[in-house]
Protein 1
Amino acid sequence: MKVTIVGAGFAGLTLAYQLLEQGIECEIIEKQNKVGGLIDTLPDENGMVETAANALMSDRNVENMFADLNLNFAERLPAAKKRYIFWEKPTRWPLTWSTSFKASKELFKAFVRGDEEAWPESGESIEEWATRLVNEEFCERLVSPALQGIYAGDIRKLSATLILKSMLKDRPPKGDFKGSVAPPGGMGELMDKLAGYLEQKGSPIQLKTAFTMPDYITNPLVIATSAWNAAEILKTAKPLIAQVLERCESLPLIRAVCFFQPTDDDLEGFGCLFPTKEKFNSLGVLFDNCVFAERSQVRAESWIIGGALNPSALTASDPEVIEAIVADRARVMGSHARPLTYQITRWQRALPHYTCAWEDALRDLKNEPPLYLHGNYLGQLGLSRILNRSVTLAAEIKANHG
Ligand SMILES: Cc1cc2nc3c(=O)[nH]c(=O)nc-3n(C[C@H](O)[C@H](O)[C@H](O)COP(=O)(O)OP(=O)(O)OC[C@H]3O[C@@H](n4cnc5c(N)ncnc54)[C@H](O)[C@@H]3O)c2cc1C
C-alpha cells in the first residue's frame, strides 16, 4: 500500500515521516517549486528571516523527530524568558492585584477542578467567556493580546471552546525540554531535512504538481493543505466535504523582519504583545535575536501585522509597512530608528479563523476513508500539535489499511 499526500507543508511532511515510522511508504504531491508551505527561512545580509513560524513547542515527538533528522536545537537565550504585554508601557504583568486574584481563582476552577460553570459554553466567544469568568480587564489586557498574538483573530468571534479545548485535548507526550525550539539554521532547515529524509527513505516528493482529485480512489489519500485549498480540490468529487471546508474563513497576515542598529534602549525578551485598546498598527513583535543565538549580528525583530481586525494592512506598500512599524516601535522603545534592512512576507490567506461558526462547521467534518484531511484548521494551529496529529493520523491509516 502507498499513501498519497497532497501538500508538502509541515502537516504533509510530518505525516509522511510518521507513516514511514509505521513502515508505510508515501508519495507527496506539492504544487509549489519548494517544500515547507508557509514555512521558509530566507537569508538577509543582517541575519535570518522567517516567513511564518520561527519555532515550535518542544515535546517528546519533536525531540524524537529532531534526533531522527540529526538536527540540533538552536541555543536558547536566557532573555527569551521575559515576555511583555503593552499596557501604557511594556509590562511583564498587565493585571491589577484584584483581577489577578480573581483570575487565578476562576482559572483554577476551570482548568484544575473542571467546574462546568467556569468552562465555556458551546458557541461562546473568547470575549464573552473571559469577561464572564473574570472581568473586562482580564479580557482586554491579557487574554485578548495573548490570543490575538497566536490566532490573529477577533476575540468577539474566536470560539472559546475550540481554543481552550485545543490547549487541553490531545496533548503531545512531554519531553526532556520545555518551551520553544528551532534548528540552528531556522525553520527552513527543519523542512529541508524532513524532505531529504523522506526522499532517502523512498517517499518521493513531486514538486510543481497541482493535484486534482480523481473520480475514484482505492489507496489512502490525505489532503494536507489549507482548508480553502482542500475545498477547491474536493469541490467536484466530494461536494459535501468541500461545502463544509468553504465555511473556513482565512486571515491575512504580514511578518516583517527588520534589522536595526542595536542600542541601549532595545527591550530584551521574547517579544511584546499589543492589546487592541492600545491601538497599535501591529499585533505584536518578536525580538528574534534575544530568543535563539546566532540569528543576527544586529538587532532583529519580527513585526506581525494584519489579522481579523486589520485586513486592509495587507494592501500597504513596503514603505507604509515600515512607517507603521517605526511608529509602533517608538511607543515601545522610545526610538525612531529606521531599519538597516528588512524583508516583508505578506500572506493573503495565512491562518484559519477559529470562530464559533467554524466550531459548528468542524462537527460536520469527518474523514471518509480512504480519504483523510490534515492541516492547521482541524482544531490545532501550532506546529507541535500538528505533529501530534500526524502521529495519530499515521496510526489510524495503518489500522485502517496496513
Ligand atoms: C506569520 C506566521 C507565524 C507563525 N508562527 C508560528 C510559530 O511560531 N509556531 C507555530 O507553531 N506555528 C506558527 N504559525 C503557524 C504554522 O506556521 C502553520 O500552522 C503551519 O505551517 C501550517 O502548515 P500546513 O502544512 O498545515 O499548511 P501549509 O504550510 O499551508 O502547507 C500546505 C501545502 O499544500 C500545498 N498545496 C495546496 N494545494 C495544493 C494542490 N492542489 N496540489 C498540491 N499541493 C497543494 C501548498 O502549496 C502548501 O505547500 C505561524 C503562521 C504564520 C502565518
Protein 2
Amino acid sequence: MELATAPLTEAWVRASCRSLEAARHPMLARRTRREIYDDGRWMAPGGLLLAERLADALQLQPGDRVLDIGCGRGQSTVFFAANCGANVISLDLWIPAPERLAAAAIAGVADRVTALQGDIARGVPVEAGSLDAIVCLQAFHCFGTARWLLRYLTSLLKPGGRLAIAQGCFSQENEEFPPLFRATDGWNAEYDRYHSPGWWRRHFEVNGPLAVRVAMEVPDGDVLWEDDVLYRGDRAGWSPQFLEHSGWLIRQIVHGRTAQPSLTHCLVMGEKVTGLRTDGSGSAERGDPS
Ligand SMILES: C[S@@+](CC[C@H](N)C(=O)[O-])C[C@H]1O[C@@H](n2cnc3c(N)ncnc32)[C@H](O)[C@@H]1O
C-alpha cells in the first residue's frame, strides 16, 4: 500500500520502526527510557543520548564556560552542569528561564546555571572570546544556517573553544522533497534548513570559520527517530489522536528507510583556531555553503 495513504495502526508502526539496542548505546543499560526522554518532555528525539554524545565529543572539563542555545526545557543544560561540572549559560526562546532554573535546582546544580530567555539572533550578554564551548541540541537549524550568526558565535569562543551541534538532519542533501514531506500537523519542520553532515561541515569551515574536528552521522541516527516514535506511542497508549497527530512525521521517518530524503541525526564540532580565514562567500540558506 502507498506509504502516504496507508492507514496508520500501532501494529504497522511497531513493524516499521526499530528500537535502539543497549548493546550499541550503553546509556540504555544505565538509565530507563523514561529518564533518557525525561518522561516525554524533550521536544525532539535523542534526549540524554545525544547530550552524552555531545559531552563526549567536547570532553567538557569542570569549570568550563558553556553556552547551551535552544536548550528547550533545559535537560541538556542540567546534564552538562551535573555530569561535566560545566558552568552553563542556558538560552532558549520559548521556555521561560525560571522553568530551567527550577530543573537545575532539583538536580542540585543551580549555582552552575545561568538561565536566559531570548533570541540568539539578538545576541547574548557574553563577552567575546570568553566561552570554552557552545552547544546546541536539536535547534541549530532554527537559526544556525545564517553566516553572520555562525561568525557571531565563533567570536564568543576562546581560542581553542568549540562549537558543537547534535540534531536531526538528512543523510544527504536533497534538492526536491516528495509531497509526503510537505505534510504537517501545522508545525513547521523547517526541512529546508535540515541539511546533511557534509553541508554543516562546509558551513562551519567556510563561515565560522572553524576547524571541523567531527562531522558525522550519529550511529543509529535514523533509529533515534524510530525509537522516539515507539516511546511516544507507548506513552500515548497508541491512541487514535497520537496516530493522527504524529502520522505525517512517522510516514516521513519510515519513507527514509528505503529512499531519500532520509531523516537521521548528525554531530558536528568545530574548533576556533587562530589564523583561519573566512572567505565570506557562503550561502545563508540553501545549497552549498561554500
Ligand atoms: C526542537 S526544540 C529543541 C529543544 C531542546 N534542545 C530539546 O531537544 O528538547 C528547538 C528549541 O530551540 C529554541 N529556539 C528556536 N529559535 C531560537 C532562537 N532564535 N534563539 C534561541 N532559542 C531558539 C526553541 O525555543 C526550542 O525550545
